Structure formats: structure tokens, C-alpha cells
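Morning F.,

Quick status update on the modeling queue. The single chain you submitted on Monday has been processed. Sequence for confirmation:
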Amino acid sequence: MDCKWWLVIAGCITHAVSTGFTYFGMSAFFPAIEREFGWSRTAISGAFSLARIESGFLGPVEGYMIDRVGARRIMFVGIILCAMGFLALSLVHSLPMLYIVIVLGIVLGSSIGYYSPISVLVAKAFRERRSLAFGIFRMGPGLSGPLVPLVGWMIARWGWRTAAVISGCILLVVGFPLAYLISRISQSEESQEQLAPERTVQDGKPARRSSDPQFTLSEALHSPVFWTLSIAMALRHMVTEGVSVHFVILLVDRGWTMAAASGLLGLSAFIGAPARIGMGWLGDLADKRRLVMGLLVALSVSVFLMGYTAHAFVFTTCMIIYSLAYGGLASLQEPIRADYFGTKAFATIQGMSRAVTTAGTFMGPLLAGFLYDLTKSYTIAFAIFAAVSLLATVFMFLAKPPGHNATRTRPS
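C-alpha cells below.
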């Protein structure tokens, strides 16, 4: 097996561990925090929403630092920060402190330690089979499914504060060896390329130059497709963030136990795993933009029915459709961005795009919490999410790939 595929596999495992604790697993803390402090769901949802603002305010800076300093160095800083965030979570006694710990500790550390640097390394290592590589890497959140009920079990067994400490320790112990392995593989790949810069054959065949356009950040920002693509992704994130944050507590309201609700959320993540790799494989063969449009429609229908019905069988069926659509969408966003704008300034362009998607990721959890406090039901919130997903489909239709002549290399 080519060495760079081990990079993807290690990245997948790292992404799985991170997502299990910092994304899906955080939803399991929601009911326990609500019970202990009695804060409204709007207030608690605000912490999760502000966590997504981190991507907006710091995403461009993160991307710039990764492009300038290097993805490998940034990983280790992020892992330490994320673990410290969980340790600080165990000491939370006020709402402002909860906000700070989640935003500047857990989420920021997860982003620069587990996600952004690895996505840059994958984008640069792969060209022809980039979508498949990202599909495998993004399968990590699906494999994180068993960690979600583990978090729920730890909270039920020892309390949410002890569960936070254990979560931080696991992230540190598992994250460092994986980051070291990824760093070594990436360094080896770069060394091989530097030793053979003029290589013209590869495996007995002529090596093909990358067909990617190579946009600078300024050129991407002046391209209309950057904005339509970013808005489509912002709307999609508004839906999935809103559903994910309130998923466990929605089921608890409907009579599910905490363990069962956390288990179903973990199952949802696990179901999305085959869709991530399957859509990654299809993305190398078919039009990624049309695949995304179809998945957004499926997301809309499933979310609407999940909010409307309390019947366990119908809800679970819709949850399966939602999970498959969510998984497919997650695996295609980075390959599309790399195909559209290249890898020359991938991390910076990705960070700037995340600044746009912040509007959606902020509004999703907050809107669902506000409408629940107002109506004591998630039906209206999920109906709005279904409409938003259809709107994202429209923007995705408009986000046609820029022509290669849309940008010219500027003279140095």
C-alpha cells in the first residue's frame, strides 16, 4: 500500500476519536448540565453556537498559520489545548466559563489538532483519488459512534465532571501517538517529492501534472462561486449542527433514557460511515455538485419527518436517511473546495470559507433552543431546518465550478 494511504487511515482514526468526544459526545453533556444548573436550553445552546463562531473568527487565522507554519507542528498544539479544555470543563460553575471552555479550549483545540491540519495534508497528498481519500478520512466521525454511548455511560456512572476529565485524558493519550505517526508519514512523503522534483514517470507510466486551478486567497474571494459554495455549506451546517446538538435531549423529552438516546446518536454516526466512503468513491466518478444537491434534498425530507413524528420506528427510519445524507455531505465538501480552488492556499481558503459558514453553524443550535423554549416542541425548528436544506440545494446549483482560465498566476 502506498505510504500516503496510511496517512489517510491514521487521519481517519484521529478524526474518529476527536469527533466522538468533542462533537457528538458533547451533546451527551447537555442534559446533565441543564439538570445541575437549571439554565435554559437557549443559554446552553448558545455555548455550542459560540463554539462554531470560533471557526468564523479564528478559521482564517488557523488556515494562515497552517499554510505558513506547517500542519504537522500545529497538530500537537491543538491536541494539548483540546485535552486541557475538557479538564477545564470539569471545573465549570458559571455560564460564561462554560462558553469560554467550549469555544477556546475544546473546539479550537479539536479544530487545529485533529481536523484542519490533516485535511490540508490529505488535499495535498492526493489529486486523482482525492474524493476517495477524503471519504476515508471523513469516515472517522462515523467510526466515532461507539464513543458516544461511552460518554453517556461515563456521565451516568460517575457524573459529567469526572466524565470530562476522563475524556481529556483519552484525547491526550490517543492523540499524541497518532499525530506523531501522521507527522512522520507526511514528512516522508514530502521528502520523496523533494528528492525527485523532475520525475516524469510514475509506476512505469508518465506522471500527470495536477489539473487543479491554483487560486490565491484574494483570487478565491473575488470569485462568485466561492460565495455561493460557502453559503450552501453554511446553510447545510445550520441544519446538521442544530439537529446534532439537540438530538439527545429531543429523545429524552420523548421518553427515551439518556443511555438509549446517546446510543442512537452513536448509531447515527456509525450509519453515516459507509456513506462517507461511498460518496467519496462516487465523487471521483461523478459530478460532486449534483451528488451534494441530491443529498441535501434527502436531508430536508428526513429532518422534517424527524421533527414531526414521535413514533420510534418512523423516527429511526428517518434518522438512518439523515445519517446517510449527513455522512455523504461531510465527505464531499473538502474535495469540492480543493477541485475548485486548488491546494496552493487550501488551508487559508478553507478557513475563510469557514468564516462564512459560521452564520449557519451559530444559528442552528440557537434557533432550535429558542423555538423549543417558545413552543416546548422541536417540530417548528425541524420544519425550518428542512426548508433551509432546500435553500442550500438552490445555492449549490448556482455554485458551478470556476473555469481554469478564471484565474491567472500573478507575477512574483
